[in-house]
Each structure stands twice: as C-alpha cells, then as structure tokens.
Amino acid sequence: IAMYQAKKAGRNQCQFFSQGLQDALLLQTSMRQDLLKALDANQFRMYYQAQINAENSCLSGMEALLRWQHPTRGLLSPVSFLALAEETTLIIDIGSWVIREVCRQIHQWHQTGLLGSTPITIAINLSAMQVQQPELLAEIKNVLDEYNIPPASLELEITESALIDDVHSPASVLSELAECGIKLSLDDFGTGYSSMEHLKVFPITVLKIDRSFVSTIGEDAKGERLLIALINFAKSLGMKVVAEGVETNAQAIFCTAQGCDILQGYHYAKPIPAEQFEQLFLSRLMANS
Ligand code: C2E
Ligand code: MG
Ligand code: MG
Ligand code: MG
C-alpha cells in the first residue's frame, strides 16, 4: 500500500518512502556491526529482578535479564537486539556469556555469604536457538560444576516458540537438563501457542503467566477470569505458578489470593545491577540468617 500510494503521489513521495527504508536498513547494518563487537568489547551486563514468595513476602529468587551497554545508544533491552542476535546466530555466544556470568555472580554471592542459607533460585532466559544446541547440556553442567552451584537452584526460562521447531526438536536436551535437576519454566504463558502438547512432552515445572493477564486485574472481568483459569490450570498440573508484571499492591493481593506461588514485577523491584540487588535484597537476607 505504501508503495502504491508513493507511486500515486509522484516522485517526491516515492523518494521520501525509500529514504525511510534506507534509514532503517542503515540502522540495522550499523547495529549488526556493533553487535558483532559487543561481546569482545565487554558491553553486555546482567540485571537481576527479584521474585517474591507470595506466601511470606520473602525473596525466593531472581530472574537474570540481559542488557547491552551500547557505546552511543545507551542501555538497551534485549527486545531491541534479540532478533538481530538470533539472525546472526550471535545469540549462541551471547547466551553462553549470560550463563557463565550469572553463575559467576551466584558463586560470588555464595562465597561472600550474601545468599545466606535459604535456597534462592536463579532464572535464566534461553532463546530458541540455544535449546537447539546439543552442546547446551554439557556447557551448563560444566559451568554449574565449576562454580559449585546446585542444579536445583537453576531455572531455565523458555518460550513456546522455542518448543515448536520440530526440525531440531529440543526435547532431548530439555529432558536431560531436567534429569540433572534443573527446573524448566515456560515464559510468557498464555501469549504464544499454548499447546497442551508442550506441557505433556516437555518436563516443564514452572509456569510464568504473562503480564498481559496480570494487568487486567481490576480492569477487565473477562481477563481476570482468564487469569484465574490459567492459575488453576497450572496448579492442577502441579506446577509452580509465577505472576509476571505485578505492578500494584492490588495485583499482588489478587494473585496471592488466587494461588500464585511467586510474584515478580515493578511493584517489588525493577531489574537492577548486581551491586544494587545486593544492597536492596541480599544484605538484609544475610542479616536475617
Ligand atoms: P521476559 O523473560 O518475559 O522478562 C520480563 C520482561 O518484563 C523484562 O523485560 C522485564 O524488565 C519486564 N518487566 C518485569 N516486571 C515488569 C513490570 O512490572 N511491568 C512491566 N511493564 N515490565 C516488567 P526486558 O528485561 O526488557 O526483557 C525482555 C525480554 O528479553 C525478556 O522477557 C526475555 O524474553 C528476553 N531476555 C532477557 N534477557 C535475556 C537473556 O539473557 N537471553 C535471552 N535469550 N533472552 C533474554
Ligand atoms: Mg523470562
Ligand atoms: Mg516473561
Ligand atoms: Mg517476554
């Protein structure tokens, strides 16, 4: 339609259209070149977002979230570069860096006594391409071994799009990870394909209900009923239920009353760097233990 309208509007309009396209392509090309250098230039950072036990309001764990400290564009969320990272397969190396960096951080927190004696889980997001790598299992096992981290404290978050590629089925890698005691969680549940087959085939024990359902609380009765149904569905399968994107006290109360096990969202904390996470959550943990 844009092309048709541009043609109809004459030469200037057409140039205007192609200028916009050219800008987008240039941006992509420069981002791609920047991304190629980002690992070596040490520009990736890990941020940590608290996960709260709904029953006692204590810290139950954290989700590690990737950031790119771009030299000129500032701190970038993966939303702005994940597609490019997948397309260039850089996500494999970036993903490996994430796993190692998070485990190194956990090890350091254990060493300095900051994690106390309470078991804290740490969630890492995996991309579809990573779970298609047969090497992933050995890689994770080795890093856990090296940093002396119990497999049961690690949670790997995958989205359903990672499960539907039946050409390179991730079933065996995921099953073996689960057999090691690592927990698998299904991220953004309710927004993707949500095939019941996935829950049957894959050893998923944690369900993260997407924040689009949580945000309907107090706003939209049908959305609320869907949220309740999803929570009950997960619980009847014996899964741990995490509510994502909890932004208000009312949402926290609602999710707790409906049986969510874990709450995560800006109401408690935004994703923050490790040092800030220590100050806000871990030093208190040490004082209490
Ligand atoms: P996700 O795994 O579903 O992570 C939750 C996203 O929601 C995060 O965005 C988080 O900052 C944001 N969030 C948390 N609480 C709230 C809230 O109360 N309100 C709102 N509006 N947002 C909230 P972020 O950090 O930008 O990450 C976006 C996505 O990028 C993640 O979604 C995940 O799919 C992906 N991602 C993040 N880190 C990694 C990584 O290390 N590897 C891979 N492959 N993907 C990652
Ligand atoms: Mg996640
Ligand atoms: Mg999510
Ligand atoms: Mg997401």
UniProtKB/TrEMBL annotation:
Cofactor(s) needed for function: Mg(2+)
Source superkingdom: Bacteria
Gene Ontology BP terms: phosphorelay signal transduction system
Keyword annotations of the record: Phosphoprotein
GO molecular function: catalytic activity
Keyword Phosphoprotein: yes
Record has Translocase as a keyword: no
Domain (EAL): residue spans on this chain: 28-285
Protein name in the entry: Diguanylate cyclase
Shown chain mapped onto the complete sequence: 289 to 577 of 577
